[in-house]
Specification:
With 136 residues, the chain is mainly α. Helices cover 81% and strands 0% of the residues. The protein has six helices and no strands. Helix 1 runs antiparallel to helix 2 and helix 3 runs parallel beside helix 5.
Length: 136
């Protein structure tokens, strides 16, 4: 099986988990479903050799899981710093800026206390990631 086909199967797993997450009502379950979706997404980007996206989405999976337990601002700032460091470390092309913006928006949203804030910010982040994925 080719790397591209594997990446597309993983992308399908990301899509299914991401859509499923929007069906849940509690912040904790939503964030944990997105953690699973992000783990699939990170592997998807690995198979596409898009390592900056792979690193940022890997950080995102960890962030979602962590945020499902806490909204502590110190942890929020840690993940903002990790996103910036991951972006800087893996920077490849100007289009990578979409990954950074999506990650920062998603990080902000993950640490919000209400389901609505999480939903709306994740929607924006997903649109940015979708746009990046189409371009690459």
């Amino acid at each position: 099986m080719s790397d591209f086909l594997i990446s597309q199967i993983l992308a399908l797993g990301t899509l299914i988990c991401g859509i499923a997450a929007f069906q849940f009502k509690t912040r904790v379950v939503i964030l944990r479903m997105w953690a699973v979706a992000a783990a699939f997404g990170s592997a998807h980007f690995w198979f596409l050799d898009a390592f900056e996206a792979c690193a940022l989405v890997g950080i995102t999976a960890t962030r979602f899981f962590t945020a499902s337990f806490t909204t502590d601002r110190r942890i929020f700032y840690l993940f903002m710093g990790l996103a910036l460091a991951g972006y800087t470390w893996t920077y490849d092309t100007p289009i990578s800026m979409l990954t950074l913006v999506a990650t920062l928006v998603g990080t902000w949203g993950s640490f919000q206390g209400t389901e609505k804030a999480v939903y709306y910010t994740m929607f924006v982040a997903q649109v940015l990631w979708f746009t990046y994925n189409i371009i690459i």
